[in-house]
Amino acid sequence: QYATTGCSLTLHHTEKPKHEAICEYRPYSCPCPGTSCDWEGSLEAVMSHLMHAHKSITTLQGEDIIFLATDINLPGAVDWVMMQSCFSHHFMLVLKKQEKCEGHQQFFATVLLIGTRKQAESFQYRLELHGSCHRLTWEASPCSIHEGVALAIRSSNCLVFDTATAHLFADNGNLGINVTISMC
Fold first, then answer.
1. Of 8, 96, 125, 160, which is the most buried if we count CB atoms within 10 A?
2. Contact (Cβ atoms closer than 8 angstroms) between residue 84 and residue 59
């Protein structure tokens, strides 16, 4: 199905659906969580789409940045999104607040590479929350935007903490997460 965009595999018809679901050459969907954006396109067009259609997303340059999530006490499900640019790549930083159990909210923080799964394997990221006497750290490889935030959460490939922990590290309802990207 994706031969016109570069896939050169020839498979038996019973194997095609499984491959097509994970094929690196399938179109990329808009990776911006919390929006109902129907955009699809090539990997090369993702950043242009984000800059034009989602102008509220801030991009910071450098390997070490602070991702500031403001008003973490907002009710309901909320997404905070930011871009980090380093090593000639773009990374999408996502903090998602959602209800996991009846009345119990959790925060999920992860990093996605605007790139392929293979490219993502070349990087590591570290998320750190700092308090006066506390530190919470998570290190992992980023997912590709092909996999998305939902898969990162379902597979626990993210930093997970509850509301009490968020308040332990927050300053006046704002949560600063130190984000460091490195090459493997």
1. 125
2. yes
Q: Report how far residue 176's alpha carbon sits from residue 173's, in angstroms, rounded to the nearest whole number.
A: 10
Calpha distance 7→50 (Å, rounded): 25
Tens of pLDDT, residue by residue over 18-36, are: 877 777 777 888 999 877 8
DSSP string, 6-75: T------TTTHHHHHHH-TTSPEEP--TTS----EE-HHHHHHHHHHH-TT-EEEESSEEEEEE--TT-S
Q: Looking at the domain that runs over 54-183, which CATH code has it been given?
A: 2.60.210.10
**For the whole model, what pTM was predicted?**
0.87
Can you count the helices (H) and strands (E) in the chain?
A: 5, 12
**What are the residue boundaries of the structural domains of the chain, listed by start?**
54-183
Contact indicator for 164, 127 with CB cutoff of 8 Å: no
Is residue 158 classed as helix, strand or coil in its secondary structure?
A: coil
